[in-house]
Amino acid sequence: MKRYVLGKVVFAIPLLIIITFLAFGLNHLSPVEPAEAVLHAQGVPEITKELIAETREKLGMNDPFLFRYGSWLLDCLRLDFGSSYVTGLPVWSQLGPAFLNTLKLTLVSMAAIVGLSIALGVGSALREGRLLDKGIRGAAFLLTSMPPYWLATLMIWYFSVKLDLLPTSGMDAWQSYILPVAIITISYAGIYFRVIRSSMLGNLNEDYVLYARANGLLELLVTKHILRNSLQVAVSVFGMAIPVILGSTVVVENLFAWPGLGSLSVRAILSRDYPVIQAYVLILAVTFVFFNTLSDIVNAAMNPKARMDR
Amino acid sequence: MKDLVVSKLRIWDSRSGAALVEDSSFTVKAGKCLAIVGESGSGKSLTCRAIMRLNKAGLRQSGDIWLGDIKLTALTEKEIRRIRGTKLCLILQNGMRAFDPSSTIGSSVRETLAWHYGWSRSEMIGKMAKAMTAVKLDDYLRILNSYPHQLSGGMLQRMMIALAIVLEPEVVIADEPTTALDTVSQFEVLQQFALLRERLGCTMVFVSHDLGCVKKLADEVLIMKNGVIVEKGAASDIFHAPRHDYTRYLVTAKTSVNQHFRRLMGGDSFVFH
Ligand SMILES: Nc1ncnc2c1ncn2[C@@H]1O[C@H](COP(=O)(O)OP(=O)(O)O)[C@@H](O)[C@H]1O
Ligand SMILES: [Mg+2]
């Protein structure tokens, strides 16, 4: 097991290097001259050739590519992502708090998604074809087919405006979490419970279930075995869901004015604020690799075969 | 020891209404071995599971099944659960898939024994060790600590037999226990079944699609085709004077396979005497 974990972590390193390289290279893929983008972002009225040359010199853009990549990478390790072209403030001073806010939203949602998916998936699998199963699948189909922004608007109108129970926006108290978390949870749990359900059904047909029952084991114990094997699939799916949700909170964050990465990244993209975009891409990618590695490790801890084969 | 009596068993698919096993009646005398033989899809597994009342929820069954004076088909779910494992033991075809892949063999086995008998850990290991040695699983500690994928199909098959030895059931139902194995392991497992009978004196239902396999073990043979019993009788009659065309076909098919095998092995025949 130790070797397996070590292998996974070591494998993540080249992956991270490639990712940082791509994030840094982004700047150079853009058709717009970076120095010009800086001047645009700062709202300079007239952009002359001399001004561009001067800016390039000032930002160190004339140094060789690899040299700049190297020093950028070293800076990144110290969470120094440069300064925003727009505000001139250090990128991390904006991105750090925003990242934390989004991470909080994501993790709370994730807990709700995991709980709900398991409950619904197990419930519907054990009652396959019966009323409960049909009800859950029907409701999930209905809710996941509604666009989130529409559902969110509906819920804001009902719970915040009509009943005046919950705040409409912001991130002031724990109540602020309820609506955004509900929206994210509905759209993901409606999909993920199906993973659990089908995995449970697959396991239900396995011989080991028949054999356990033939040995007279209590249905509760049999279900425990089925659940344990079904969750192995789910763990990787859930592990991968965290970065996906992290990167897709844009809609919800903008609807609820959540001060997170989603809102920040949209603003940065619109104003071509490259250092912020770079840092955003980098942080998402690193989180992706982190949770991917973590879910592999958790999966291996649960699945003896995966642990020993690789 | 008690007779196992199956009377007018009918199994059908509740959705389509299609009958899968039709009017099936037979008796296995206490301590005897009945072989159920038939090609794949003839309803052998459904019959086995019907006895244990373990068919899928979508399937229905009617008819009566008795174990001595216990009417299995009239028991509550809780009562039949107490009978499963203690009085009725099922042994499956694919040992590889019969154990939870995420648990060690030992923990799966312990779970069953603890539930039925509440033995302590060392008691269980003691009893398992004895039974496993009897089925030639000598390295029992290593095996108990292994996961299913680390063992061979033949070993896991013998593991199920060892568990049956410890559980000491009145009836052992073996659903094609030799089908997934190569010829050599088949031979060994068949020997183990013979020993199991000697040891427990249990009643046995032994399913196979290969008539040749059951020659040594069976006292009676029951031939199934498309969910219907086409012939049943004493093993010697079935082998020497088959009445039904399908049985004759199975007997000759078995002989020709055996001849082929003999030619491959270069002479001596591979049959049980
Ligand atoms: N759960 C089920 N639902 C519907 N049909 C089934 C089910 N299980 C088995 N059958 C059908 O019943 C027939 C007999 O199956 P089975 O008893 O497994 O055959 P075998 O003799 O090979 O063990 C097959 O034709 C199979 O398609
Ligand atoms: Mg079968």
Notes on the structure:
The complex is a heterodimer of chains A (310) and B (273). Chain A has 310 residues and is mostly helical. Chain A contains 14 helices and no strands. Chain A has a domain at 100-268: MetI-like (MetI-like fold, Orthogonal Bundle). The longest helix of chain A has 36 residues, at 91-126. Chain B has one domain (4-81, 100-267): 3-Layer(aba) Sandwich (Rossmann fold), CATH 3.40.50.300. Chain B contains 10 helices and 10 strands. Chain B has helices spanning 44-52, 77-83, 95-98, 105-117, 121-134, 140-144, 153-167, 183-200, 235-240, 245-265, and strands spanning 4-13, 19-28, 33-37, 59-67, 70-71, 88-91, 171-175, 203-208, 220-225, 228-234. The chains are: A mainly alpha (310), B alpha/beta (273). Chain A binds chain B through residues 128-129, 206-208, 210-218, 221, 225, 228-229, 232, 302-305, 308, and chain B through 49, 52, 54, 57-58, 81-86, 88-90, 92-94, 97-103, 108, 111-112, 115-116, 147, 149-150, 160, 163, 167. Magnesium ion binds at residues 44-45, 175-176 of chain B. Chain B: It comes from Paenibacillus oryzae. Chain B: Keywords: ATP-binding, Cell membrane, Membrane, Nucleotide-binding, Transport.
